[in-house]
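Section 3.1: Structural characterization of target chains.
Under the original work plan, the team committed to producing a structural model for every single-chain target entering the pipeline before any wet-lab resources were allocated. The record below documents one such target. The sequence was received from the expression subgroup and is listed exactly as submitted; it comprises 182 residues.
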Amino acid sequence: MSEVLAVYGGSFDPPHVAHTLVATYVLSAYEVDSLIVVPTGRHPFDKSLTPFEHRLRMLEIAMRNLAHVEISTIEGQLEGPSVTLRTLELLKQAHPASDLRLIIGSDLLAETPNWHRFDRVAELAPPIVVARAGHETPGEGGPALPEVSSTEVRARLREGRSTEGLLDPRVADYAKRHGLYV
């Protein structure tokens, strides 16, 4: 039986408590051996992002207590916009004996027709759909994870409001020390 790697990609700008909960949930509720977290290098829809190195460091802080989680720098090394299929193909090359699964939030299901070759993405890494509060999930689905918005977290940081319960305090401290989201 081959190792199963769950791939969890996203902007993680900043990585908040729901991101950590997704990683914990997938490792606990699905037959996966480990989880690779992949911060987006350059957003495919040209969304402005905090520099990759800062998002990478904040992810390392946010996921520091989770066993079987690896933070990947693969998209920071790619030229051009991040395309899920290309990232999965490179991960498969790096882990040829492993089976891949792609973690996707139910809030993103409606967007998959806009993804580059989602049919091939689903073939290469069958999706694990994680329910998000306020969004439908096909099939049985699991419990809905809290609706925490990176946009809201960034606004709170910018306005000097509390992020308690939404953001790891060490991530908030990192963001403040580096003048992010001001």
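The radius of gyration is 16 Å.
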